[in-house]
Amino acid sequence: MGSWVHAELPTGGSLDITSLSAYLNSSNDAPNFVFELIRSSPTMIILVLDLPPRKDLVLWPDYLKTFYEDTKLDTHRQALEKIPEVQPYVTSSLFIRTVASPTAIFFRIQTENGGERIDEIIRDHIDPISKQVLGIWLDHCACAERDVGEEDKAYLRKRDGVIRNKTIEVDLGSSFPRLFGPEAAKQILEAIKEYFTV
Predict the structure, then answer these.
(1) What is the largest CA-CA distance in the chain?
(2) 137 CA to centre of own chain
(3) What is the mean pLDDT of residues 104-128?
(4) How far is CA 89 from CA 46, 56, 81, 104, in A?
(5) Could you give the CA distance from residue 80 to residue 129 in angstroms, rounded to a whole number?
(6) What is the pLDDT of residues 23-55, one digit of tens each?
(7) For the chain, where are the E strands, in sequence order?
(8) Quick check: is 171 in a domain?
(9) Could you tell me if residue 169 is inside a domain?
(10) Which end of the chain is more exposed for a tag (fewer CB within 10 A), N or C?
């Protein structure tokens, strides 16, 4: 599921949200992929980049090792963390924080000297790191051959459905009414939910 939203804000300025989420089906229990870049001013962006787990990492330590440790996924978060303008971003949604992986990138990037520095950070750091994380997901998750039993498939279908619907509700449900008005937002959200329950 991908989206790009641009809206002029009543208070001045604009809001740009770029999102890409990739969900695997129940025949593969590997992590999904989430990318979101929110730019609410020329000098501030929020970056979300993660491979959310689909199994309990405490009960399945091999899952943690295979998808997070062996792939050295956390090195990408550590690299971004070294940039002076980068600060941790803590979403107010406990649900989003609950489904994130331990290597999740949740950062707020703010500069003081105009949008040129933000553009430089996007070009030189966010762009290559996002592509590397996507590459890890494609090579080790999307193309992974995993033996998933029927009981696990039913669990994954249920879990993924709950996460998709809740994410749509929390993420899009909070911004769409402001961008499109309550009635249009409700219709859009219902269509998106219906599409993903098929």
Answers:
(1) 55
(2) 13
(3) 91
(4) 7, 24, 11, 11
(5) 8
(6) 899 999 999 999 999 888 888 999 999 999 999
(7) 2-8, 14-22, 33-41, 44-50, 86-88, 105-110
(8) no
(9) no
(10) C
